[in-house]
Amino acid sequence: MSGTDDEEEHSSAIKTPKQVITVLLAAFAFPVAIIMLLAQYVTGDPSVDPNNPKFSDEAVAKRLKPVGRLVLAGDSPQADEKMAGTSQAAATAPPAPVAAADGADKIKSIYTTSCAACHTTGAAGAPKLGDKSTWAPRIKSGTDTLYNSALKGKNAMPPKGGNASLSDADVKAVVDYMVAEAK
Ligand code: HEC
Question: Using an 8 Å Cβ cutoff, are 130 and 181 in contact?
Fold first, then answer.
């Protein structure tokens, strides 16, 4: 057993500066390089071709389109197609039915939304629509009195039926309608 054999067995494999560099590369530089590549992969630009038709404004808007949308009674079905994501379509959409409808239909719809809750059921002692006996004494007191009660309120009857956005003319027209129904 010579001393050289022993030394050979237990000494490090790294003996020359060249080997030190190799080990440094393998243990340090290599993982760092991999981390840099990964970072580049995650943060790098996704290679999207802007000329691809799938990424056109129209196609993207179509994909982002909501699954459903509210259709009002007065909306034309063509408005659906125009809704392909452009706000212009909304601007040119036909007006809501309430604004479009006129005359008797409008008055009846105001009655239904603002007055019927009390005047169809007779809630809180409201004179029922079409109930001649409860309306007769009120009609006798004069149309102006009725207008005034409807506009300013009377006991449990709130001003304008609680809908302050109604115009005076509309409220008066609804009173006329209620009076006509009671005759
Ligand atoms: C919250 C319930 C309620 C709503 C909503 C309501 N009313 Fe009345 N209304 C009453 C009650 C209660 C009376 C009876 C008041 C009384 O004579 O004491 C009444 C009475 C009236 C009268 C008779 C007033 C009089 O001088 O005899 C008129 C006209 C009238 N309402 C019109 C309307 C109109 C038009 C609307 C909708 C725009 C409306 N009301 C909505 C409760 C309501």
Answer: yes
